[in-house]
Each structure stands twice: as C-alpha cells, then as structure tokens.
C-alpha cells in the first residue's frame, strides 16, 4: 500500500461512477455542459439533478475556468459530492502553462473536497482523454500535486480510477517513483 503521509493512495482500473467515496471528480468542460467520456458517464449514472446544478452554476457564474473546479451534489452516485474539474485542452496553451492548469484542477478539487468535509476522493485521469494531454506527462503532475496539497487538505484516501489497463500502468509507474518517499 502506498501512503502520502497519513493518506492512503489507491490506483485501480475501473469505472469512476461505481466508486463509494465522499467525492467523485469529473473531467468537465468549462461550460459544465456535459459531454462524452467520464463526464457523460457521471451524468448518466448520477441522474439529472447534477446537470440541473451545473445549469445553475453556469447561469450564475458562466461555468468554470480552466484549471479550476466547482462542486455539485452527486445525485444517484454513491458519493456525497461531484467535483467538476476543468482540465486544459492540450495544445491551447504552452506545455508549461498546461501543466500548471492541470495541477490547479487537482489542487482545487482537494481543497473543495476538504471544505465539504470529505475524507475520500476519487479522481479520473483529467485531460488525458478527448483533451489530449499526454498521460505520461499528466500522471506525475497529478500525483505530485495531490501529495503536496494533502499537506493542507488531509484525506483518508485518494483513489485514482483509470479506465484502461494501459492508463493504470502509466500511473503505477509514476507512483512507484513516489513510493516510500512520503
Ligand atoms: P478529458 O476531456 O478531460 O480528456 P475524458 O473523459 O475524455 O476527459 O477522458 C479522461 C479520462 O477518463 C480518459 O482516460 C478516459 O478513458 C477516462 N474515462 C472515461 N470514462 C470513464 C469512467 N467511467 N471512469 C473512469 N475513467 C473514465
């Protein structure tokens, strides 16, 4: 088992909509308009109440900036909250700026989870699907940002739910670089 300080860090291959955790993170778009991939899966499994809340946030604040995140309820999912994080589209900004924006999504998501009293959180691999961020570059950023942010916003468990065996292998290799160094 890998820990970052007092936090258990779990990697698994699976469907994030099936996880029982306090907060499930969505890879959303800045309009919070739903879509394919993990976003579509979360709205399908969670039911229409999540989109109603997204609609309200869009009406009030115009959506969510890239590199940030917003929180809604979790509808029928086995979670208390969905945190909609908006990752960068690879190629729209410089690689360094994209790294910073991706890190911002993970850090903001952990902060929001903490503010909502969550002790466990599940992340998908944000931006590495349709948004095209190379997963070999994204995985170490995700892990390093989480490890750093946990100093301020402690969780019992952070779970990374990877959809494919290949993605899981990339995260495993990135995590092994951190193992034992907590
Ligand atoms: P983005 O637009 O941020 O790239 P995507 O949803 O296209 O988001 O992809 C992000 C990652 O989520 C991809 O690795 C994709 O394979 C994965 N994914 C898709 N559906 C699920 C799901 N139900 N559970 C976990 N991961 C998923």
Automatic annotation (TrEMBL):
Tell me the superkingdom of the source.
Bacteria
Q: What is a single molecular function from GO for this protein?
A: hydrolase activity
Q: What is its EC number?
A: 3.5.1.-
Q: Where is the Macro domain?
A: 1-179
CDD domains recorded for this chain?
Macro_OAADPr_deacetylase (cd02908)
The family database entries (InterPro entries) matched by this protein are listed as: Macro_dom (IPR002589), Macro_dom-like (IPR043472)
Q: Which protein are we looking at?
A: O-acetyl-ADP-ribose deacetylase
The organism encoding this protein is Kolteria novifilia
């Amino acid at each position: 088992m890998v820990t970052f300080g007092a936090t258990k860090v779990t990697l698994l291959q699976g469907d994030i909509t099936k996880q029982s955790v306090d907060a499930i993170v969505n890879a959303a778009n800045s309009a919070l308009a739903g879509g394919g991939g993990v976003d579509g899966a979360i709205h399908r499994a969670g039911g229409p109440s999540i989109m109603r809340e997204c609609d309200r946030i869009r009406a009030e604040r115009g959506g969510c900036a890239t590199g940030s995140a917003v929180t809604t309820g979790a509808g029928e999912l086995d979670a208390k909250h969905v945190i909609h994080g908006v990752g960068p589209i690879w190629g729209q900004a410089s690689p360094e700026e994209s790294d910073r924006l991706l890190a911002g999504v993970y850090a903001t998501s952990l902060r929001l989870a903490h503010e909502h009293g969550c002790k466990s959180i599940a992340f998908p691999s944000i931006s590495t699907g349709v948004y095209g961020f190379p997963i070999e570059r994204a995985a170490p950023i995700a892990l390093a940002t989480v490890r750093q942010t946990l100093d301020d916003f402690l969780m019992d468990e952070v779970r990374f739910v990877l959809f494919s065996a290949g993605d899981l292998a990339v995260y495993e290799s990135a995590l092994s670089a951190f193992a034992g160094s907590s």
